[in-house]
Amino acid sequence: MVTPFILLLGLPVLAGAVERTLTIKTPARIPAGQAFTVTVSAATDAGKGEQIGFLQVEASLDGGKTWEALFYLQKSGPKVTQQARLMAGAGGSSVQVRARAAYRDGLAGDVDYRGGAIRWEESWKDWQEPPAKIARISVNTP
User: Which CATH number fits domain 20-140: 3.30.465.10, 3.40.50.300, 2.60.40.730, 1.20.210.10?
Assistant: First the structure.
């Protein structure tokens, strides 16, 4: 009896792939003076104890000149979603929301959403991408 042998070339290996996500959901445009909701989510399926060690979110109502903390979460488990309510400013301005997450306590050490080692004194300190993501919301004139 001959045992069939199948060789698969060029197919990606999915076993063992880790997915880490960091998302900011906002409207793209908002009327001046209107309240709106921002939803930020982070997740990891790495297992082995990895969790969202830090999730930090800030907003700027003046196009990035000044920033205000929306929330700062620690040891949030493998998945977290948080919402914040903001008020749009004057027409023609913009609102920015920035978020960053540190995935910790797993086999990979302290990593960003792409799996790269966090450089605490470089990219983390200066809100670079990664580990940060930024969403920009245009404020329309009524």
Answer: 2.60.40.730
What pLDDT score was predicted for residue 32? Answer: 95
Rounded average pLDDT over 39-59: 96
Please say whether the beta carbons of 43 and 18 come within 8 A. no
Neighbours of 102 (CB within 10 A): 20
**Three-state DSSP class for 92?**
coil
Report, in this order, helix, strand and coil percent for the chain, each rounded to 5. Answer: 5, 45, 50
What ranges make up the beta strands (E) of 8-87? 20-25, 29-31, 35-44, 51-60, 68-74, 79-87
Quote the mean pLDDT of the chain: 89
DSSP reduced 3-state for 123: helix
Average pLDDT value for residue range 23-45: 97
Measured between alpha carbons, how far is 77 from 60 in angstroms, rounded to an integer? 27
The structure's pTM equals: 0.84
| CA 93 distance to own-chain centroid | 24
